[in-house]
Description:
Blueprint: H1 2-23, E1 32-36, E2 39-42, H2 43-74, H3 81-94, H4 98-119, H5 124-138, E3 140-148, H6 151-164, H7 167-174, H8 178-181, E4 186-191, H9 192-199, H10 201-208, E5 219-221, E6 224-234, H11 237-264, E7 284-286, E8 308-310
Parallel strand pairs: 7-8
Antiparallel strand pairs: 1-2, 3-4, 3-6, 5-6
Helix pairs in contact: 2-4, 2-11, 3-4, 4-11, 5-11, 9-10
Amino acid sequence: MRSKVLIGALAVFLVGCSRLDRAIQPDPLQQVLAVVDTEPVTQAELIVDLEEHEGKLALSGLMLAKRVAHLAHEHQIKLDEARFNAESSKLRARIQDPYRLDYELRQLKSALLVRSLVLENVSEATKRQFYDKFKEDLREYDVSQLLVKSAEEARLAALRINHTGDFATEARLISEDEPSRMDGGALGLLDRASLEKIFGPDAAAQITRLPVGVVSPPLHSLYGYHLVEVTRSLQSYDDLKQAVEDQIVYGLKGRFMEKLGLELKGQEPPYIIPPGRPPIDVGAFVAPSGSPTTAIFVPPSGSPSSAVFVPPSGAPSSQVFAPPPSGHPSSGVFSAPSGSPCTSVFDIPSGSPR
């Protein structure tokens, strides 16, 4: 019997000390991020400021993404897996941070669903009319270039290429355009506007008239002298259908998203307590009826540290929702304030509002 009493006492002691250890841990939200004229800027201040200025924008973005996913399901629209895989592989090669990558992949998925939703109401005839009107600007050219400083260097390089038939090797050896040199001068698919931006209007006009596989004469630009080879030309409607659709979506997407935003206006969740709301019932903040137990209860600016956050109906009655540092999200159960003794009792008093 005595051993059982000692074991029980030891268990109570260890639990109490464990709670005390947690209570005296330094608060990460009070970490000083910067000091300006002896005044510290804390992590908590940064979080509150971000919530105040960026929170609504982030929330609206998430709500729009949910609405887009719902509409896609409702309209039985499937994600373009081939394009998603192609675009996501580029993102994975470029972005190392896993959180940023996850965000960008979600944005990509939502953008592709929006694209399909917008195009749902665009007929094939409309797409062809758009192509007929803008085909000169829509045409794409798979271009490789070699850049040197003088016209004479370009002329000699052209002679070697005509002899060997190997544009890519010559570009790797002598081109002064570092980004494309390692790829044998390849610039990828470019439309007329992109060609004009790189080479200038006059040189771009000559490039669009080049037969596939023929090397241009030396073309002068601000960067020097270029030799250019067009390895592929996309000019038919079937070749350019994706580009046609992309341009149509670009023109209609703003109106589509504005309409979704108006549909969602006023639907922000009521259980987020905005900063500045006055205390209720001597410091008790009651969650609105029906709000989920995972709601984030943000204490108003200047609220007393002893304020009690009363859980919504159905939450465990044995837990007090004591306020965390301002702006700190939680799953609904807040730990005891820093410095509380390990013997503190955190049961809700009988008769307290729930």
